[in-house]
Design goal:
Elements: H1 4-26, E1 36-40, E2 43-48, E3 59-63, H2 75-83, E4 87-91, H3 100-116, E5 124-128, H4 131-141, E6 148-152, H5 164-167, H6 175-180, H7 182-185, H8 192-196, E7 201-204, H9 218-227, E8 232-235, H10 246-249, H11 252-263
Parallel strand pairs: 3-4, 3-5, 5-6, 6-7, 7-8
Antiparallel strand pairs: 1-2, 2-4
C-alpha cells in the first residue's frame, strides 16, 4: 500500500514534470512576438494565435523556421497579421530544400494545427528566401489545403539555389538521380495543380538579387503562372538585392495580400 507521504511525493513529482513539459512547450524558440513554441516529432515548431479570435483561426505558414528565424525583421508584418485576426506558424524541417522528407514534417504540422490547435484548413504559405522551396513544394502536393502563397525573394527553382549538387543530399539521391527526377520535385515545374485550384500568388523580389536571381525565380514563376491563367502580383524594388532592406519586411502590399488570401481566394483582387 502506498503511504500518504509516498502519494504526496508522486503528486509533487507529477506536477514538476507537467511544469517542465509546459516550459518545453513554450521555450523551444525565441519568437519576434509572443507565442507558443513546441517540439513536434523532434522538430522545433511555433504557433502565434491572435487574441480573441474564435477557432478555426486563419493563419500564415512561415518558412524557413531555422534557428533564429523568424527574426525581428518579421515583427512588423506579424503584428499586422495578428491585428487582422490571422495567426502565424512554422516548423523547422532542417535544410531540406522542399524534399519529400521535409514535406512529411510539414504534413505533421498541418495535422497538429488543424486537428488539435484550432487552426483553419487553408493556410497562406509564406516563404522567405529558401523557405520558398519548402512552402511551394508542400503546396504543390496539397493544392486544396492552401489559401495562397506570398514570397520575400523566394527560391522557386532548385537549379537556381542551392543547385542540384547542393540539394541532392536532402533528397537522398545522387545529383544525377535528382536531375532525372527534377520535374517531380522542383516547385517551378509543379505549379499547374495550384493554378487549377485557383491559389493566388504574391512575391516581392529585388532586380539586383545575385543569390536568388529574380528572373530565374519569381520572374519565371510569374511567366508560367500567367500562362496557366493564374493570378500573381509581383513587386520588383529597383536596385535591391538579397538583403535586409526594410521594404521587404514592411511591405503593405504583402500584408494586404495575405489578409485577403486568408479570407479566401475570391477575396484577392
Amino acid at each position: 500500500m502506498i503511504s500518504c507521504l509516498s502519494q504526496f511525493l508522486l503528486i509533487a513529482i507529477s506536477a514538476i514534470c507537467i511544469g517542465l513539459a509546459k516550459a518545453q512547450d513554450t521555450n523551444v524558440k525565441t519568437l519576434p512576438v509572443p507565442g507558443d513554441s513546441f517540439l513536434l516529432d523532434g522538430h522545433a515548431a511555433f504557433l502565434i494565435k491572435p487574441a480573441g479570435r474564435p477557432d478555426p483561426v486563419p493563419w500564415v505558414w512561415y518558412a524557413p523556421t531555422l534557428p533564429g528565424l523568424p527574426g525581428t525583421e518579421e515583427k512588423w508584418m506579424f503584428e499586422k497579421f495578428l491585428a487582422a485576426g490571422i495567426g502565424i506558424a512554422g516548423i523547422d524541417a532542417g535544410e531540406c530544400f522542399g524534399s519529400p522528407a521535409g514535406r512529411v514534417v510539414y504534413s505533421l504540422l498541418y495535422v497538429e494545427l488543424t486537428e488539435k490547435r484550432g487552426m483553419g484548413k487553408k493556410p497562406v504559405m509564406m516563404g522567405r528566401s529558401r523557405g520558398g522551396l519548402m512552402t511551394l513544394s508542400w503546396a504543390a502536393d496539397n493544392p486544396k489545403k492552401v489559401g495562397g502563397f506570398a514570397g520575400i525573394y523566394p527560391v522557386c527553382d532548385l537549379t537556381s539555389y542551392p543547385g542540384i549538387e547542393g540539394a541532392c543530399g536532402a533528397y537522398r539521391m545522387t545529383a544525377a538521380e535528382l536531375q532525372t527526377k527534377l520535374k517531380e520535385h522542383n516547385p517551378m515545374d509543379r505549379l499547374a495543380p495550384l493554378a487549377k485550384s485557383g491559389v493566388p500568388l504574391f512575391a516581392i523580389h529585388g532586380d539586383e538579387d545575385k543569390v536568388v536571381p529574380l528572373e530565374a525565380n519569381s520572374g519565371e514563376v510569374k511567366k508560367r503562372w500567367d500562362a496557366l491563367g493564374g493570378r500573381m502580383q509581383l513587386i520588383i524594388p529597383k536596385g535591391q538585392g538579397h538583403n535586409m532592406w526594410k521594404g521587404f519586411f514592411q511591405c503593405q502590399e504583402l500584408v494586404d495580400f495575405v489578409i485577403a488570401a486568408a479570407a479566401g481566394p475570391s477575396s484577392v483582387k
